[in-house]
Amino acid sequence: MAQRAPAGGRPGGARFAQFKLVLLGESAVGKSSLVLRFVKDQFDGYRESTIGAAFLTQTIALDDQTTVKFEIWDTAGQERYKSLAPMYYRNANCAVVVYDITQAASLDKAKSWVKELQRQANENIIIALAGNKLDLVTESPDKRAVSQADASAYAQEAGLLFFETSAKTAENVKELFLAIARKLPIEQAAQRGMRGAAGRPGGVDLGRREEAGTTGGQGGCNC
């Protein structure tokens, strides 16, 4: 006799939940590179800039009984697309706000995104702060412009998860998304059989052009 699936939609007591995740941050900090590493385990040192946003999905297993699917909106960092951002973070369950640890100004921009999310997004949104391009300061410590201690202190004060990452080497990329998944209300979502992620905004031409968020530092990269 076939097992009856529980509310989460999986047999044998397994839990499945789906959540909407949005990436925010200044252009060139490496948002798309982080997503590409997480979703496809790939790194491309030269990427075209995201136009509007790109949509991707990835499923991860937290344990033998728990599976989380992320519906990921990778938003463009250019100022001209900033007005579109609320369309993507509206009803998001979680967000990754990315800055470049070799560019101090990018952390200031990240802080402004955090304030906006805390003011306008879902009140229960899980926010992670990711300091990307760790590989650059590993190779050349003098390139670091944002200290880990300062960023960590800010994240703790603001109630954020915090990781320093490298899309190029994959350092802490999976750990970042796993930490987010572990903070999400998986039990509630599974019991309700709910989609944590809202549907795609209508009328948006996403294409598949992603932001050139390279950590490779190649010349001529529009990132």
TrEMBL record:
GO biological process: protein transport; vesicle organization; vesicle-mediated transport
Keywords assigned: Cell membrane, GTP-binding, Lipoprotein, Membrane, Nucleotide-binding, Prenylation, Protein transport, Transport
Gene3D superfamilies, alphabetized: P-loop containing nucleotide triphosphate hydrolases
Disordered: region residues: 192-223
Keyword Oxidoreductase: no
UniProt feature, compositional bias: Gly residues: 214-223
Classification via InterPro entries: P-loop_NTPase (IPR027417), Small_GTP-bd (IPR005225), Small_GTPase (IPR001806)
PANTHER family assigned to the protein according to its UniProt record, in alphabetical order: PTHR47978
Stated name of the protein: GTP-binding protein
Organism: Cryoendolithus antarcticus
